[in-house]
Structure formats: structure tokens, C-alpha cells
Amino acid sequence: MAYAEIPETDARAPALDRIDRKILHELQRDCSLSLARLADRVGLSQTPCWKRIRRLEQSGVITGRVALVDPARIGLGLTVFVEIEAPDHGPGWRARFAAAVAALPEVVEVWRMAGEVDYLLKVVTADMPAFDAFYLRLTETTGPKNVTSKFAMERIRDTTVYPVNTTDP
């Protein structure tokens, strides 16, 4: 899903029962589980489990399945959080900004914020010279009012697992 298309919380989201939430919990931890093992863990037979997974995918609850990669092991040893202040808040600038950051592969997350900064970017690069080159491309293509970069020194916790309640009915 493209940055500009990220929906807000959807009131039409399907109601999830405890079994659906258990499926989500297990798949977030390891989406390579066999269907048989997943079904066993959530207390279903394989066919009903598969139907639930398909329903969760079709309803947009499950948006994809990926392999998680250690950035340092693929030569991306520098993580930087970049705060952007917009020069204006009109739809034209927002659209140009969204297109510009979508074209920068170093940007792995973009958040529109409330508070002192307008956007927060998570950026990964190989090293400081690579970040400098990225920074120049970013500022040339987006024309921000202000940019502040904060360099991560240590990753203490990094997870993609959302806390799903698997105990309530």
C-alpha cells in the first residue's frame, strides 16, 4: 500500500474472535508455520484455519507476509530518524512529499505527526557518507522548512508483532 493511501482506523474492520486473534498472534511471530502446525496451535483443523486466514487477508487485516532481515547483516548499519517540518500544509506539497519519499528506498517508514514536527522518517543506510547523499536527495526533492536527524546508537527492541489479546473471548 502506498504511503498516501494508508487508511485511518477502519470502522468496517471485521470482528475478530479469539481464534482469529490467535491466528494473527502466531503468524506475526512466524508466518512460515505450516498450516497443520498453525491449526494445531490455535485449536482448529486445517480447512477452517485456512478459511480464516483467507478471510483475514481478504478483509485487509493481514496485509502481507514477509521475511524480516537484519539490516546490519546486509550492509545497512546506520539507522537515522529524520524529523521534517513542512514549509506548508497544503495538499500539493503533501502529495509531492509523499511521492518523493516513496521514491527513496532508504526510507523504510514515514509517519505524519502531531506536535513539533510534521513528519518522522525512519531511514537506513550503509554509513554516514551514504546518509549524506540521501540527505541531499531528500532536501532537494522535498524542500522542507527544517530537517533534524537523530542517529540511532543501539537497537534495543525492534518488533513487528502487535500485542494481540489471545485470551478474551
Automatic annotation (TrEMBL):
<keyword id="KW-0238">DNA-binding</keyword>
<dbReference type="InterPro" id="IPR011008">
    <property type="entry name" value="Dimeric_a/b-barrel"/>
</dbReference>
<keyword id="KW-0804">Transcription</keyword>
<keyword id="KW-0805">Transcription regulation</keyword>
<protein>
    <submittedName>
        <fullName>AsnC family transcriptional regulator</fullName>
    </submittedName>
</protein>
<dbReference type="Pfam" id="PF13412">
    <property type="entry name" value="HTH_24"/>
</dbReference>
<feature type="domain" description="HTH asnC-type">
    <location>
        <begin position="16"/>
        <end position="77"/>
    </location>
</feature>
<dbReference type="InterPro" id="IPR019887">
    <property type="entry name" value="Tscrpt_reg_AsnC/Lrp_C"/>
</dbReference>
<dbReference type="InterPro" id="IPR011991">
    <property type="entry name" value="ArsR-like_HTH"/>
</dbReference>
<dbReference type="Pfam" id="PF01037">
    <property type="entry name" value="AsnC_trans_reg"/>
</dbReference>
<dbReference type="InterPro" id="IPR036388">
    <property type="entry name" value="WH-like_DNA-bd_sf"/>
</dbReference>
<dbReference type="InterPro" id="IPR019888">
    <property type="entry name" value="Tscrpt_reg_AsnC-like"/>
</dbReference>
<dbReference type="InterPro" id="IPR000485">
    <property type="entry name" value="AsnC-type_HTH_dom"/>
</dbReference>
<dbReference type="InterPro" id="IPR036390">
    <property type="entry name" value="WH_DNA-bd_sf"/>
</dbReference>
